Each structure stands twice: as C-alpha cells, then as structure tokens.
UniProtKB/TrEMBL annotation:
<dbReference type="Pfam" id="PF07681">
    <property type="entry name" value="DoxX"/>
</dbReference>
<dbReference type="InterPro" id="IPR051907">
    <property type="entry name" value="DoxX-like_oxidoreductase"/>
</dbReference>
<keyword id="KW-0472">Membrane</keyword>
<dbReference type="GO" id="GO:0005886">
    <property type="term" value="C:plasma membrane"/>
</dbReference>
<feature type="transmembrane region" description="Helical">
    <location>
        <begin position="124"/>
        <end position="144"/>
    </location>
</feature>
<keyword id="KW-1003">Cell membrane</keyword>
<comment type="similarity">
    <text>Belongs to the DoxX family.</text>
</comment>
<feature type="transmembrane region" description="Helical">
    <location>
        <begin position="24"/>
        <end position="46"/>
    </location>
</feature>
<dbReference type="InterPro" id="IPR032808">
    <property type="entry name" value="DoxX"/>
</dbReference>
<keyword id="KW-1133">Transmembrane helix</keyword>
<feature type="transmembrane region" description="Helical">
    <location>
        <begin position="71"/>
        <end position="93"/>
    </location>
</feature>
<feature type="transmembrane region" description="Helical">
    <location>
        <begin position="100"/>
        <end position="118"/>
    </location>
</feature>
<keyword id="KW-0812">Transmembrane</keyword>
<protein>
    <recommendedName>
        <fullName>DoxX family protein</fullName>
    </recommendedName>
</protein>
Amino acid sequence: MATHIMESPALPGLADRLHQATDLAGRIPVSLLALMMRVALAAIFIKSGMTKLANFDLTISLFQDEYMVPLLPPALAALLATVTELGCSGFILAGLATRFAALPLLGLTFVIEVFVYPENWVEHLTWASMLLFLVAQGGGKLSLDRVILRSYERHRDFAS
C-alpha cells in the first residue's frame, strides 16, 4: 500500500512567509549593525577604563596580584590597558578610524582571554567577533569616517 504525502495548502503560504521574513532580515543595513556594535563595545570598554581610573592604585594592585600579565610591569600594563580602553573606545564610538581603533582592543581582548580570565571565553569571543566585524566592515555610514571620506571626495572632485 503506497502512501502519498499530501501537500497542505498552508505549506506554500508558510514557505512564502519564511522567504519574505528572510528577505526582510537581509535588508537590515550593515551600517546599523556597525553602529550598534560600536555603541555596545564602547559601553563595555569605557566602563572598564573608568573603573580603572576611579582608583588607579587599586588597579595597579590588581594587575600585580590578580591579573599577573607577563612581560610588563603592573603599573605600565595598567596604564596601557586604561588608555587603550578609553582612547580606542572613544574613537570607535565616534566612528573615527574605526578599523584601526578596533585592533588594539582586539589585542587587549586576546590578552585578557589568554592570561587573565580564560574562563570568560564566551564573553571575550563576543567582543572579538564585534571587533573583527568593525575591522572588516569599518564604522559604517553613521560614522565620522564616512563624513570625512565624503568631505574628502567632494574636495577632490571640486579641485579636479
């Protein structure tokens, strides 16, 4: 006895709706994603940098006794981490030199993962993924990078 699978009239409609939803999701602007990632990363790293600045003596103690980052003296490591977190975050938030500003934070994330808190790998992988997205895609249309590029192109075209 052969059984035949009967098509439900709802299935073609469901397939069409899934296709429409997928198409709609594919229209989310990359620039919006870049902006969201820039804001999220800046919030993470600015908060961390401000915490370090709030009590820098304690920060140095943490670098000496808990973090134990190799190769660098604790005070220098604390200073470099703080400057990197605050400086690069500011650039990323503004969308200024986004690709370049993401690289030191990516390096810092790697150091934190390998030497300080390897058990937090999921969080660090999330940060690294967002940072790599910004390295690959840049700050997007909603960035100072784009404003500067447009200004340069207008000036170049005007001068020609």
